[in-house]
Amino acid sequence: MASSAAVSTAPPALSLPPSQFARLQPHAYLLAHLSPPASSQQPSIRANGRAPSQFRVTSTNTGSLTHTNGSSVVRLGDTTAVCGIKAEILHTEDIASWSVSHSSSSSTPNKRRKLTNPTEKPGEDRQDGSDEVEDDDSYIEDFSLLVPNLSLSTGCAPGFIPGAPPSALAQSLSHRVLSLLHSSRLVRSEDLEIWYQRPNLGPEELERHNEDEQMDVDVEQDGSGSVGETREIKAFWVLYIDIMIISLAGNPFDAAWTAVLAALRDTKLPRAWWHADNETVICSDLVSEARRLSLRGLPVASSFRVFEADAASGWRAVIVPDAEEERKIAESDRKGIQRRWVLADPDGYEEGLAQERVCLVIDKDQRQNGKVVIVKMEKNGGFAVDRKELKELVAVSAQRWEEINKILGQC
Amino acid sequence: MAAQRQASSASQTPHISPAELSYIYTSLSLPGAPIRPDGRSATQFRPLSAETDILPGTNGSARVGFADGTQAIVGVKAEVERTALGIEALTQAEQEEYAAETGGNSKSDGVKQGSSSGQGSWVQMAIEIPGFRDDDALPVFLAEMMREPLVESVAGGGEGGMVGGLKGRLVINRRWHWRLYIDVLLLSQPLSYPLPLLSLTTHLALLSTKLPKLKSKGEEDPFFDDDWDAAEYLYPRAKSTSTKPSSIPGSISVHKVRPPVTLLVVSVAENVIFDPSREEIAVADAVLAISVTHDTDSGRLKLLSIRTIDPPSRLTQPGVPNSENVATLGSTAAAEESVIINPSTGEEEVPGVWRPRRGGVKRATIAKMVKMVLEKGGVGEEVLEGLEGVEVG
Amino acid sequence: MTDRRRINGPPGGTRPPVFASSIKPTTVAAERPQRQRQPNELRKIFLKTGLIPSASGSSYLEFEPSASLSAARASPQSVIPPSSSLKLACTVHGPKPLARSATFSPNLVLTTHVKYAPFAARQRKGHIRDASERDLGVHLETALRGAIVAERWPKSGLDITITVLEAEDDRWWADAPDSHDAAWGMMNVLAGCITAASAAIADARIDCLDLVAGGVAAVVADETAERGVSAPRLMLDTDPADHRSTLSACVVAYMPARDEITELWLKGDISKASVGIDDKNLTHEALIDGAVDAARGAHSVLAEAVRESAERFAGLSSGKST
Q1: E strands along chain C, which residues?
Q2: Which chain C residues have a beta carbon less than 8 Å from that of B361?
Q3: Residue C114 and residue C200: Cα distance in Å, rounded?
Q4: Minimal Cα distance from A347: which residue of C?
Q5: Which of B13, B211, B302, C108 could form a disulfide with C153 if both were Cys (CB 3.0 to 4.6 A apart)?
Q6: Can you spell out the DSSP letters for B103-166?
Q7: In this complex, do C19 and A285 lie within 8 Å of one another by their Cβ atoms?
Q8: ipTM of this complex
Q9: Chains within contact range of chain C (3+ C-beta pairs < 8 Å)
Q10: Domains of chain C (ranges plus CATH)?
Q11: Please, where are the H alpha helices in C146-230?
C-alpha cells in the first residue's frame, strides 16, 4: 500500500521506484503519504505504514546479562537499546563533604532525615506518599548516586565513529536521562543507603557483637530506645546505569528510557552491612536476601515530531500567530487540508524531516484512580504545537503508558 | 588518518614499486637458498651493538643499536606496592583462618598455592615509538606482545630458580609486591618492524635489573637494604664457577632463568627467514612473532607465545601484467606470459608481476617456523647464546 | 582528569561489593562449575545476521550458557553468577569512501574496533578503550584482512565495530589469581569476535576468500578429589571458569576451504605439563590443531547464518524487482 500511494502522487513522466523517490525527495515523499488525494479515500498514513499517532512495536527482555544487578534489552521497532546496571559501594568516608554536613546528623534529633523509616520493608506498600519529606532524595543528586551514560559509539548508525568521544547527541541523551531520573524521583534514596547500628557498649553486648553484626539491622534495633543516636549511614549504593544503543533507527530517547525503566525494575541489590572489624561493607550473596528497588511510579516517555507540509515554514519570521492566521488555519482544517502532522515515535527517516520535537513523560497515579500525571514536558525546535494539541498528545501518551505498563509487566 | 591506518598493519608499508616487490619475492623464494638483499643467510641476524646499565636512575637498563642506525633504550623501574586487598586477598586471609579452625580442607591448599604467585598486571610495559601516539595500535600491540611471554613464563624449580616465574619473583609477602615498569623507547624512526630490536633490548635490561635486598622478614611491612651492592638481580644468578667471570665474556652464562626473547620470523614461499628487514617483511607471506625462553629443567627451549602479525604485503599495490596493460597490449611480451599457480599460496600468478598476498598461512608452515626456532641448535638457542655474550652488570 | 563529556560517578570513587561468602564459606558456598561437555565438544552458538538495519552488515553472537550458569538462572541462590557466556553485537559499515585527508590506498582499508560494555565483565570497564581492547582490535583485523579480497575496493574503507555485552571470565571468581592467571577469557572473546565479524562481513556482501571462523583450545588442569590438581588435558572451547587453571591456550582464525590460518594467538607455558606425564599430545601443534577443530565447528554455524542472510537478501531483491 505504501508504494501505491507514492506512485499515484509522483509525476507520471518520472516513474521512479518508491525507494528512490524517498531518497531524492524525502519531504515530498512523506507528504504524499500523509495527505493522500481526497478522491482515493485513503487514510493519512506515514511512509512506514503507521498511523500518525501509532508507536512502533515494542518488546523488552530483562535479566539476561550475567554481570549486572539488573539489565534489559528494549526493541522499539528497529531501534535497540541495552541497559545494564552495576551497583558499587560508596563509603561515606570517601565523600569529601560528608563529615562536615552529615556526620552529626545522627545525633541531632531535629535533623531533616527521618530515621525511623529506612528499615521499613521495601516490599510493603507505602501509603505515605504524601507525607514524605520534601528533600528525601537529596542524597541521590548531591552524591551522584545514579550515573547514567548512554553510548552511541557501537556502530549503531553510520554517522557515529566508534572510539571517538561521545557525540553531542549521546551527551544530550545521557543528560536527559539523568535529569529525568532526578526530577521524577524514580529511585528512593533509602533503597541506596547502607546503615550501621553502632552496638551499645555494654559488656554483654560487646561479646555478642560478633554474631550480631551479621544480623539484619532491624533486629538489632528492637527494643532499644536510643535508636536515633547510634544509627548512621556508612555507605551508599551507586548505580552505574549504562545504556548501549545497539541499533539506531530514530527515537533513541524513548528506547533508552524504557530500557532504564525495565532495568531498574529488574535491579536487585544484595543485602549489605557495615563490618566494623574490617571497616568495610560486606554483602550477602544470598538471592533470598537481596531486595528489589521500590521505584516511585512508572514514568513513561513518549516522543513526537511535528512534520510540516510547508518545508520552509520552520523559517518564517518569529511572530505570534495573529487572528488572521488562526482563521486561515481553521479554514483549511475545515476543508480537510491538513498542514502539519504530529508523528508519534518517529523513525530515523522522519526525524530528518521534522524539526519540532515534543517529549512527554507521564505517569498514572495508581492511588488516585489512574490520574494522569505529567512528569516532564519538553518541546523545542518550533512552535507549531499549541495547547490544544499538547492536550491531545497527553492523551496519546496516556495510552502509550498503558502499553508500556503491560509490556513491562510481562517481563 | 594515514598514520592510524598504517599503524594497524605490521609496519608502515614501504613505498616499494610492484616490480621491486616481485624481484625481492622471487629472490627470497628461491628453493633452499634465499638470496637476501643484504646478503645474510636465512637465519642470520643483523649485527648489533649492545650495552647495559646505562641509566643510573633505573633498576636496570639497556641500549641496543642495529647497524642500520635504529636504536632502542629500555629502562626498568621497580616500586613497592601494597597488594590490593580485594576480594581475593580477603578470601585468602580469612579462608586460611577458617581452614585452620576446621582442620583444613581441600580448599586450603589451593589457596596456599595462590599466595605465592603474583599477578600479571604487576608488570607494566609502555612503548614509545616516534611518530606514534602511545594509544595507537602498533605500540599497544607490541607492548602486549612482549609483556605476554614475560608474565606467562612460569619457569620454576631448582635452587636459584624463580618459583612462579617473574610474577612470583615480584611477590614480597602476602601484602606487598613489586610493581615493574618497563619503559621502551625507540630512538629512531622504525625502519623495519621494531619487534626484534625492542625485544632484545628489553631482555638485556631485565637481565641487568636489580632489586634492593629485603631486610624485613615474613609479613612485616617491607624495608630494604640501602646498599646498592647488596641488591639482588631480578633474574637471579647462580654463583659463578669461573674465577674471573668478567674477563671471559662467554662464561657469564650463569643465569638459570632468563627473560624470554621474541623473534620475528617470516615465511616467503617455501623459505623461512629470520630477523627480516623492511623490504623482506614487505613481501612476506606470513609473519609470526615467536617468544621462547630457556627451560631450566630440560635445558631446552620452550615456547611461550605465538602471535601472527598482519603482513604488510596484503596492503601493497599490485603490479599489472603486460597482458592487461594498455601500453603493452598486443606486444610480443604479453604473449610470452603464462599464468602459473604459486605453490605456497595456491593462487594464479604471472611470474614477475607482484600480487598482494591474501589468505592465511598453512599449518605446516607454522609448524616449520616454530620448529626452526625451538630445535636444538636452532635459531632460538643461537640468539640466546649471542645475548649471553653481552656483558651484563 | 574527569571526563567532561560523560556523567561521572562520585568523585571519591566507588568500590565493587565484597561478598560475605568470599570471606567465610557459608551454606551456599558456591562450588566451582564443572565442565559438562566432552573434551572435544563445543558449546552451541547462537548467531544471527541483519539485526541492525542501518548497518550494511551486522550480526549478533551468543555462546550457550554453561550448565552451571543455566542452573543458577533457573533457581537463583547466590547473586554471584558462577560463570558467564559471551554475548556480542557486530556491525559493518561500508565499503565507503575514505576521508579526504586519507592517502591513496589500492585496497580496502579495514578498521576494527572492539569495545566492552561497562557492564560486560565482573569488574566495571571504563568508557575509553584500554590496552586489551585495542589489542583485540588488532588481532581481529589481522584475522579478517587475510580473508577479505581487499583489492576489489580501492580507495574505500570498511568499519567493523564490535560491542561486547557480556565477556567470559578469566578464571573462576573465587579463585585467587594463581601462577597461570592471565586474560584467558579474552581469547574466547576473540574467537567470538572473529566468527561474528565474518558473518557480518558476509551479510554486508563483501567478497571473501572463505568464511573465517574462530576457535579456541586450551590445556587445562582440574581439581580432583584425591590429589589436588589433575594432569593437564587438552580441551576445545574451554570456559576458564570451569577449570582450576589454564596452562596454555590458543585461538585461531581458520578458513576451512583453503586450510589456512589467518590469525594465530597462542600463549602459555606448557613445558611443565608435558614433562610430568608421558602424553606427547600436549604440544603446541596439538593445541593449534585443537583450535582449528574448534574453528571448524564454529564454521558450520557460521555457514548456516550466512545462508540465512543470503536467503533474506535474495528475497529482498526479488521483492524489489516485482
Answers
A1: 18-19, 45-49, 57-63, 87-97, 109-116, 156-166, 213-221, 233-236, 245-255, 260-268
A2: 260-262, 264
A3: 14
A4: C54
A5: C108
A6: T--HHHHHHHHHHT---GGGEEEEEE-TTS-TTSHHHHHHHHHHHHHHHH-----STTS-TTHH
A7: yes
A8: 0.90
A9: A, B
A10: 37-76+84-321 (3.30.230.70)
A11: 184-203
Contact B280, B273 (CB under 8 A): yes
Question: Given a cut of 80, is residue C138 above it in pLDDT?
Answer: yes
CB B10, CB B310: distance < 8 Å:
yes
Integer Cα distance of A252 and A259 in angstroms = 10
Interface of C with B in 200-229 (CB under 8 A): 209, 212, 223, 225, 228
For residues B27 and B22, give the distance between their C-alpha atoms in angstroms, rounded to a whole number.
9
Domains within chain B, CATH numbers bracketed: 20-319+354-392 (3.30.230.70)
What is the full per-residue pLDDT of chain A (411 aa) written as tens digits? 444 444 445 445 557 788 888 888 888 888 888 887 777 777 788 888 899 899 999 999 999 999 999 999 999 999 999 999 999 999 988 888 776 655 444 444 443 444 444 444 444 444 444 444 445 678 888 889 999 999 998 888 888 888 888 999 999 999 999 999 999 999 999 899 998 887 765 555 444 444 444 444 444 444 444 444 578 888 999 999 999 999 999 999 999 999 999 999 999 999 998 888 878 888 888 888 899 999 999 999 999 999 887 755 545 555 555 666 666 666 666 665 677 889 999 998 899 888 889 999 999 987 778 889 999 999 988 777 888 889 999 999 999 999 999 999 887
- Inform me whether the C-beta atom of residue C134 falls under 8 Å from chain B C-beta atoms: yes
Q: In b/e form, how buried is each residue of B19-37, taking b as 16+ CB within 10 angstroms?
A: ebbbbbbbebbeeeebebe
**Which residues in chain A are closer than 8 Å to C14, comparing Cβ atoms?**
88-90, 94, 238
Q: Which amino acid is at C13?
A: G
Residue B183 has pLDDT above 50, yes or no: yes
Residue B94 to residue C271, Cβ atoms within 8 A: no
3-class state of residue C142 by DSSP: helix
Q: And the C-alpha cell for A251?
A: 527515537
Lookup: cell for B234 = 631480578
Q: Which residues pair with C248 in a beta bridge?
A: C219, C268
CA distance A8 to B252: 91
In the chain, the amino acid numbered C54 is S
Judged by DSSP in three states, B193 sits in coil
CB C177 within 8 A of CB B114: yes
Residues 6+ apart with CB under 8 A from B305: B145, B148, B149, B152, B262, B289, B290, B291, C265, C266, C267, C268
CA distances from C74 to A84, A97, C68, C78 (A): 20, 44, 10, 12
What distances in angstroms separate CA B291 from CA B73, B192, B206, B236, C106, one per listed residue?
20, 19, 15, 21, 34
Q: DSSP assignment, residue A180?
A: H
Q: State whether C166 and A65 contact (CB < 8 Å).
A: yes
User: What is the C-alpha to C-alpha distance for residues A391 and A388, in angstroms, rounded to an integer?
Assistant: 5
pLDDT digits (tens, 9 = 90+) for A208-253: 444 444 444 444 444 444 444 578 888 999 999 999 999 999 999 9
**Torsion (CA) B106, B108, B113, B117 in degrees, nearest 10:** 140
Contacts of B54 (CB under 8 A, 6+ apart): B61, B62, B63, B73
Which residue matches cell numbers 560487646? A206
Question: Across the interface, which of A66, A163, A238 has its CB nearest the CB of C10?
Answer: A238
Q: Which residues of C touch B149 (CB under 8 A)?
A: 267
pLDDT of A289 reads: 87
Q: Rounded to whole angstroms, how far apart are CA atoms A273 and C207?
A: 58
Q: Is the dihedral of CA C140, C142, C146, C151 positive or negative?
A: positive
Residues 134 through 193 of chain C touching chain A, CB cutoff 8 Å: 159-163, 165-166
